[in-house]
Amino acid sequence: MFLLANLGAEIQRLADALHKGDRELSNGAFARAQGVFDTLSRMPLRPPERKEIEILREVIEDLPQTKRRFTVSAESLQSYFYPFAHKVLGL
Fold it and tell me: Which residues of the chain carry a pLDDT beneath 70?
């Protein structure tokens, strides 16, 4: 749960930095998000959870691309990750 909340925070930073055109901040957020994905990939997950993480990783890796394959908005990603942050923060 904590890792997904952390991943959501990095993805929000990535989306914000991309929107502002800040290459340095977006590269840092992207690298940190990749680190979280790497940690998640080493965890014992059920097949549906693993597939969801794989799809999510593809979507996130597509965000900084100029020719994107997916049309996922920052708002949609925020909505996806909000429940994880909510649960971790105990709200």
Answer: 91
The whole-number pLDDT of residue 35 equals 97
Beta strand ranges found along the chain (DSSP E): none
pLDDT score for 87: 85
Give the pLDDT confidence score for residue 67 in this predicted structure: 93
Contact 72, 59 (CB under 8 A): yes
Instruction: Determine what percent of the chain falls in helix, strand and coil, rounding each to the nearest 5.
Output: 75, 0, 25
Phi/psi region, residue 67 (left: phi>0; alpha: psi -120 to 50; beta: rest), is: beta
Angle 23-41/2-20 helices, nearest 10 degrees?
Answer: 160
Question: What is the C-alpha to C-alpha distance for residues 81 and 59, in angstroms, rounded to an integer?
Answer: 14
Type of residue found at 13:
R
The residue type found at 15 is A
